[in-house]
Amino acid sequence: MAKPLTTYRSCNLCEAHCGITVTSDPEEGIIETIRGDIKDPMSKGYICPKAYGLKGIYEDLDRLRTPLIRRGNSFEEASYEDALDLAASGLMEVKRNFGANAISTYLGNPNIHDFGSMIYHPPLQRALGTKWRFSATSIDNLPKSLSTSLMFGTSTPAVPDIDRTDFFLIIGANPIVSNGSLVTAPDFKRRIESLQKRGGKLIVIDPRRTETADIADMHFHIRPGGDAFLLLAILNTLFAEDRINLGRLKNHVCGLETIENLSREFPPDKVASAIGLSEFEIKDLARRFSKARSAVCYGRMGTTAQRFGTITSWLIDVLNLVTANFDEFGGSMFAKTAHENTERQRPPAFGRWRSRVSQLPEFAGELPLATLAEEIDTPGEGRVRALLTIAGNPLLSAPNSARLQEAIKSLDFMVSVDLYLNETTQHANVILPTTTSLERSNYGFVAHGQSTRNFAKLCMESIPAQDNLLHPWQVALELGARLRGQTPEEIDEEMFTQLCRSRNIKPDPDKTNLIGPERHLDIFLRSGFYSSAEPFTLETLKANPHGVDLGALMRRLPEMIATSSAKIELAPDILLKDCDQLRERLKSSSDRFVLIGRRHLRSNNSWFHNIRSLAKGPQRCTLQVHPEDARALKLTNGDLAIIESRVGKVKAPVELTEKLMRGVVSLPHGYGHGETSTKLSGAKVFQSGTNVNVISDDKWRDLTSGNAAFNGIFVSISAQ
Ligand code: SF4
Questions:
Q1: Which domains, and CATH codes, for the chain?
Q2: pLDDT of 325 over the 80 cut
Q3: Residues 109, 114, 116, 117: what is their CA dihedral angle, to the nearest 10 degrees?
Q4: What is the position in ligand 1's atom list of the atom closest to the CA of 18?
Q5: Is the CB of residue 54 below 6 angstroms from any atom belonging to ligand 1?
Q6: 190 pairs with which residues across the strands?
Q7: Ligand 1 close to Cβ of residue 296 (< 6 A)
Q8: 605 backbone dihedrals φ, ψ, rounded to 5°
Q9: Could you identify the atom of ligand 1 that is nearest to the CA of residue 14?
């Protein structure tokens, strides 16, 4: 019997990137065990139940192991050669007939957790020649990236220095379930417990008493969409009580007076009833935050995927800045990765061009996903006619999915790179499957950039690629090569030469014949921050399979500031302009129910619902309703409720809970697996559920960025 192979890697299913130990039998193609890696310096053995899902995905009989080509209403298995040729020729035909911008791409969330995809997608986009690109960013964190970019000139947000803070204010985030997002901090619960043991406090603001709120020192319900008012009222108190302190950064900040004037319009007594916190509670929060030895405010989906997402994200950083808690230990700090090599990044572009129909601005070359359907179904010059989706299921994750479904059906041509025949890929002409993450190496390109401790880790493959499947980066390279009439090796060499030139480094002669992401990573590391005293290379990471701890977060300001004024912009004009709508909102009122999302520990967007070990158990796709509201609606536990918005209507079983504030209902996302032509047998049986995005409104967007506003949608509820 062959000796099992043991590898140490990071689970890349979410941003926590927990260290795992994987044992496998490479000859038999079997993953034997997945356990937490106690030697991983970041996670110290912690994993959540989803880590086993990596094995579940690898073994899933529904997973595609051969490319598929559409023939009429069904699919036929094909070789990669034929499928890639057809994919390239179909896309080229659309380009020839209607121009390159008739093609659009959509990149799903798994791409940012896969180093190879991060490296090889940009050249594929260039090979297509189109500027139309969408991704999961604009149904998630775009507002935070944009506000950070407007304030600091960099799109990578600062992270809460959880392990050193004394006062942790969480708004609209549930890290006990999500394990942190826009921050890589595995085992969030342990970190919170340590905070409390050292006398620190956790305060949670959320319309639902979440799992995180359950362990908090204080929790306050807030009306969805009220976060910006709360933050402005806190700022108002800080100014009124002379509690402003810019600390070390006082000479590097501009716009403080503008913030003071703005906050004057939102005193606590004026916003209290609209948001659901009392004047006393708001003032008390402001005082506690400013008095703490160190404090940090952190927000996530509840603060970004809402109408005032960019404004709220901005005000969170303003609060941290004006209390001397930005770029300070225990406050909000920037990570320093091993692959970066300069303090000052070029600021990402914003609004250089706009979408055709709704005139939404691009950010870093990407448009908000909420506009994709109308860009396909609105006739006229420049209509999107072909789509390439990569590891994404927008028909379950984009707003107004019924409209998007009809739009996608009308495309001239569609290619999907995906593990599954799912709700979206079922409409493709060609589906190109790939390996699963255990079959390839990885590096946390994004995760390390938002880590709560500086860290670097290379994950080697735990089992060789099975069934001759290509890695996602190989599919991107093969497709790009066909589109450009070159070989994959030629494209890779061009990319590599360009990278070496931009990093001003000579390639290692031993690696000149290699191809693939690791060769590129080696250059990033060799020319990176930690390579100055002695070389920090791919070999360094290989010699440290549990990862390299690069120390606690360090101060990076003012060196990192990359705005055109060379100052931290406390009051960017674009955001001030959008505050007009904030003023209007404060005057308005509605007695309709307000919908918010939620997530479950055993679920990760849409693609884990097919893994039986995770999907088994009670139905999780329920409409949570406060018992008093349910009584008024004549609904009780288990009843089917009809939920209706401007764009659609769905049904879901009712779950009564006092965790929600009155007037708010909650339905999770990623469900709706009832389609007959998909190949997701587990999801259909165990967690079929309701697609909340049938009622998510594609016109209900964050004002500034166009990010989908999944939270705060007005709905009507009735009994079936
Ligand atoms: S929290 Fe769970 S899903 Fe996320 S990286 Fe850790 S083990 Fe994987």
A1: 165-327+557-576 (3.40.228.10), 590-719 (2.40.40.20)
A2: yes
A3: 0
A4: 6
A5: no
A6: none
A7: no
A8: 50, -130
A9: 4
Ligand 1 binding pocket includes 14 (Cβ within 6 Å): yes
State which amino acid sits at residue 335: A
CB of 18 shorter than 6 A to ligand 1: yes
Going 338 to 344 to 348 to 350, the CA torsion angle's sign is positive
Q: pLDDT band at residue 720, thresholds of 50, 70 and 90?
A: confident
Among protein residues, the one whose CA lies closest to atom 2 of ligand 1: 48
Mean pLDDT of 513-534: 91
Q: How many other C-beta atoms lie within 10 A of the C-beta of residue 627? A: 15
Give the residue, by CA position, lying nearest to ligand 1 atom 6. 18
- Beta carbon of 538 within 6 Å of any ligand 1 atom: no
C-alpha angle 112-617-609 in degrees, rounded to nearest 5: 30
Would you say residue 511 has pLDDT above 90?
Answer: no
Q: 411 is written with which tokens?
A: 């495309």
Distances (CA, A) of 257 to 261, 552, 569, 691: 6, 33, 12, 46
* CA distances from residue 610 to 59, 114, 122 in whole angstroms, order as listed: 11, 21, 30
DSSP string for 107-165: E-GGGGG-HHHHHHHHHHHHHHT---EEEGGGGTTHHHHHHHHHHHS-SS--EE-GGG-
Using a 6 Å cutoff on CB, does residue 475 contact ligand 1? no
Residue pair 223/276 in contact (Cβ under 8 Å)? The answer is: yes
Identify whether the C-beta of residue 297 lies closer than 8 Å to the C-beta of residue 289.
Answer: yes
- Binned at pLDDT 50, 70 and 90, residue 361 comes out as very high
Q: Write down the mean pLDDT value for the chain.
A: 95
| Sign of the torsion formed by the C-alpha atoms of 350, 354, 355 and 359 | positive
CB of 99 closer than 8 Å to CB of 127: no
Confidence of residue 596 (pLDDT cuts 50, 70, 90): very high
Q: Is 34 in the pocket of ligand 1 (CB under 6 A)?
A: no
Give the largest Cα separation in the chain, rounded: 74
Does ligand 1 come within 6 angstroms of the Cβ of 459? no
pLDDT band at 512 (very low <50, low <70, confident <90, very high): low
Mean predicted confidence (pLDDT) in 173-185: 93
Sign of CA dihedral 131, 132, 135, 138: positive
Compute the distance between CA of residue 629 and CA of residue 341 in angstroms, rounded to an integer.
Answer: 55
413-441 tens-digit pLDDT: 999 999 999 999 999 999 999 999 999 99
Using CA atoms, how far apart are residues 10 and 192, in angstroms rounded to an integer? 22
Q: Which atom of ligand 1 is nearest to the CA of 604?
A: 3
State the pLDDT confidence band at 219, using cuts at 50, 70 and 90.
very high
Indicate the pTM of the whole model: 0.97
**Helix (H/G/I), strand (E/B), else coil: 237:** helix
Atom of ligand 1 lying closest to residue 10 CA: 5
From residue 322, give the alpha-carbon distance in Å to each of 123, 235, 676, 720. Answer: 41, 9, 55, 51
Question: From the CB of 11, is ligand 1 less than 6 Å away?
Answer: yes
Query: C-alpha angle with apex 606: 437 to 643, nearest 5 degrees?
Result: 170
Q: Are 53 and 611 in contact (CB under 8 A)?
A: yes
d(CA 637, CA 589): 29
